[in-house]
Amino acid sequence: xxxxxxxxxxxxxxxxxxxxxxxxxxxxxxxxxxxxxxxxxxxxxxxxxxxxxxxxxxxxxxxxxxxxxxxxxxxxxxxxxxxxxxxxxxxxxxxxxxxxxxxxxxxxxxxxxxxxxxxxxxxxxxxxxxxxxxxxxxxxxxxxxxxxxxxxxxxxxxxxxxxxxxxxxxxxxxxxxxxxxxxxxxxxxxxxxxxxxxxxxxxxxxxx
Length: 208
Prior knowledge:
Number of strands: 7
Oligomer: single chain
Strand order of the largest sheet: 5-7-6
Low-confidence stretches: 30-45, 47-64, 69-73
Distance between the termini: 116 Å
Helix content: 40-55%
Structural class: mainly alpha
Order of helices and strands: HEEHHHEEHHEHEE
Shape: elongated
Largest sheet: 3 strands, antiparallel
């Protein structure tokens, strides 16, 4: 009888220990879930307060222990800010002068126009540069022969102009360009004798 009671007591104690361990384990899981949810909510609230354009880079620890760095996201800013009229004229002159060129050829023409806008020897706006006459001679033939304003602007021309306006400069400082194949021979003599040839690309030669 004594041995039976002792065995029952031991069995009861084991059940109590198992039940206590099970309850502690469940409480630990509940606390872990609660803390995880609280962290997620707090993290999402913090992210919601961040401005995407001024997002401060975060440093995260990968599971392997490697440090992973997310760098600042920088807002892209235009180098040139044009009026709607100047922007349209720039698109038109690039399409008229370099519609058959690749995107680099289009960027070169747009770049020359913007170089002139920035240069004190030329007018201060795109429209004035494109329509300028020196000694009665037009600087850009499409401004005189009626092609300017009658061209359909391609997506590639828009991309080329945007890239130049955002600061991509591949002109090497060129202020002039000419297509020797189609230019007046006397005009090309002036280019050759008065200017410095920088390079040729596509159907154009570029001068400073």
